[in-house]
Specification:
Blueprint: H1 6-22, H2 28-35, H3 41-53, E1 57-58, E2 67-68, H4 70-80, H5 88-100, H6 105-120, E3 123-127, E4 136-145, E5 148-155, E6 160-166, H7 173-186, H8 192-196, H9 204-222, E7 228-231, H10 233-237, H11 245-256, H12 258-268, E8 276-280, E9 292-301, E10 305-314, H13 319-341
Antiparallel strand pairs: 1-2, 3-7, 3-10, 4-5, 5-6, 8-9, 9-10
Helix pairs in contact: 1-3, 1-4, 2-3, 6-13
Length: 343
């Protein structure tokens, strides 16, 4: 991006803000009148024409007004927007909602999507947190029959898996509890590989149980596909850009396609450990997003469990508010993950 003069920067910022607010092409007269500028509309018009030549603005073929290009939005977000935060009252309200909710991951995820959608008035989504690998937390062995037991495996983060295990000998509940208690001591915090590394110190009977535990964890590692929670789909219908049913349907299809979101996340956040990422118009990589913008962030504890959240809307979205909301909710979710894992 080439450097703009201070006046060009100011006019570009005003055009972007006005277009975000009105969804109609912005004329030089509208800028002067709306913001009480001390320069003439002719001067503003000349600067807007120069900004168009530089690729920051364009104009619809039937209008004398200008609208921002992807390049103009990018310049606005990176150079003109500055640091933004939600008002203190909103932050307090959102925090109160989270700490009033039941202390369950699913409730937090649903609330995150709902809060973001309401705050930004666009579509919001969040992926369930997932550890780099399954980590052992707790095991229960419950006698069903003399030679049959229910294996209840609880993993870090609260995921629970159950499996029936048949024995070749009769085992009492007392014997099963002893095995479970021993495993809870020596397997705490281990991966499937770590569980297998302990087999040499186990009895033959214990090894049978440990093999099943490791197998259950490995299956989860191989099929780790996170649930995605969405909210605010109806907000899209209120945006002029998506008033036409075909455009709205395309957005709905994108959000319903989990593999597409995963591909976006893999590309946009692959090298990012914190902070908010803004994707404007697909950035030349995702043609499906040519009419949209995404504001994304990762949340969680990198060594324990992480997820992603974000909002999707037209390129004419209120970037300051969207970035602030995504950042704040991501930080809140990170706090909750830290509490859950005792970090």
């Amino acid at each position: 991006m080439g450097d703009l003069t201070p006046r060009q920067q100011a006019i570009l910022g005003l055009v972007v803000r006005q277009y975000i607010s009105t969804a109609t092409p912005v004329s030089s007269r509208a800028i002067v009148e709306a913001y009480g500028l001390s320069i003439s509309s002719a001067t503003v018009r000349n600067e807007m024409a120069h900004l168009e030549k530089l690729g920051y603005l364009t104009h619809p073929h039937t209008s004398a007004g200008r609208v921002p290009t992807d390049k103009g939005y990018r310049y606005f977000v990176e150079r003109l927007l500055g640091e933004t935060e939600l008002p203190p009252a909103e932050r307090r309200t959102i925090r109160h909602q989270f700490y009033q909710a039941r202390p369950e991951m699913e409730q937090w995820l649903k609330l995150s999507a709902s809060v973001l959608a309401q705050t930004v008035r666009n579509v919001a989504w969040i992926t369930a947190p997932c550890p780099p690998q399954c980590l052992f937390k707790h095991l229960e062995l419950i006698s069903i029959h003399d030679t049959l037991a229910l294996v209840v495996l609880i993993l870090e983060g609260g995921r629970v898996r159950q499996r029936l295990l048949a024995w070749t000998q009769t085992l009492t509940q007392e014997e099963l509890s002893r095995i479970a208690n021993r495993f809870n001591e020596i397997f705490a915090g281990l991966t499937a590989e770590g569980v297998r590394a302990q087999l040499a110190r186990l009895t033959l009977l214990e090894s049978q149980v440990a093999e099943l535990v490791a197998e259950m964890m490995e299956q989860l590692d191989r099929s780790a596909r996170r649930d995605i929670y969405r909210d605010g789909l109806t907000n899209i219908l209120q945006q002029p850009e998506f008033a036409e049913s075909r455009s709205a349907r395309q957005v709905f299809e994108l959000l319903e396609e989990s593999s597409f979101l995963e591909r976006i996340l893999a590309g946009a956040l692959a090298q990012v450990t914190d902070g908010v990422q803004v994707i404007i118009g697909g950035e030349g990589h995702w043609q499906e997003l040519s009419n949209c913008s995404l504001v994304l962030a990762r949340y969680g504890v990198s060594s324990r469990a992480t997820g992603e959240l974000g909002v999707l809307g037209p390129k004419r979205m209120p970037y300051g508010r969207a970035i602030s909301a995504v950042r704040y909710v991501a930080n809140l979710m990170s706090e909750l993950i830290q509490e859950l894992y005792g970090c």
